[in-house]
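Can anyone check this?
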Amino acid sequence: MKMISLQDVQEAHSRIREHVIKTPVMTSNTINEMTNSEVFFKCENFQRVGAFKFRGALNAVSQLDEEQKTRGVVTHSSGNHAQALSLAASKLGVKATIVMPSNAPQVKVDATRGYGASIVFCEPTVESRVYTANELVKQHGYFLIHPYDNEQIIAGAGTAALELVQEYGELDALFCPIGGGGLISGTSIAVKGLSESTKVIGAEPKQADDAYRSIRDGKIYPSIKPNTIADGLRTSLAELTFNIISENVDEIVLVTETEIVDAMRLLWERMKLVVEPSGAVPLAALLSEGKRFQKQRIGVILSGGNVDLSSFFENYYAMINSESS
């Protein structure tokens, strides 16, 4: 199996850069003071579909041949990859079918439909996602674009870190969330390719720590009923991402659910950034391990910002109605 290289990430960037948003890099005096470091946030919550996933999806769909485009594509995803593949496919006139777990956030379900994809729901387990997608491939001949076990997806995901380092120079460390491992795989390839001395730090919820245990023990553990607010990080590593992480990622930091919410609140209140729980996990990891990274230049990938705010606004509507009655 060919290992993905920095050149693959650079070629992906050339392929997609006219169609993706070059997301801003933001800083916060408050967070710099809290960590006694200089922190650069790559804001993929501002990316199209609200997450880094559009980078990989567009890179993958752009490389389909005509026969594959005619067949249509399928994937399984709890939300962000679903939206990304739907939009990428629609832009290239390709039919997209998305397998989504029954407990996927409604905001992500609605957005996926809004981009034109057909949705097939399944049980909220990794096994059910994979089985349902494979059955659709057998029945309809769709071309499967896996959310992270895919070289084109990984190379595209790595373009966010590529932009960060190209724009702001060498970093001492970069924090990135881990779910299925696609983002941190691409990130680590880009970062280590540009600066071998930069430490790549994975961040994972304690209540969904399959990647941590997998790397520690040298074998892949499935993610079984992970109970975390970070819904984008509930998936298991694939062999491809496991191998890349084993080679390139320096360590994985685990964080609690409270630390995740605290980090998300800090980003909302101090930086005015709407970041979803999965996207806040790397900041939670930095805050929990801050003493080890003082007086350093730190990168943080804010992977997405798709949060269901319906209950938040319903409280305000209720307040307005009670005051006017």
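Reply from J.R.: I decoded it. The chain has 15 helices and ten strands.
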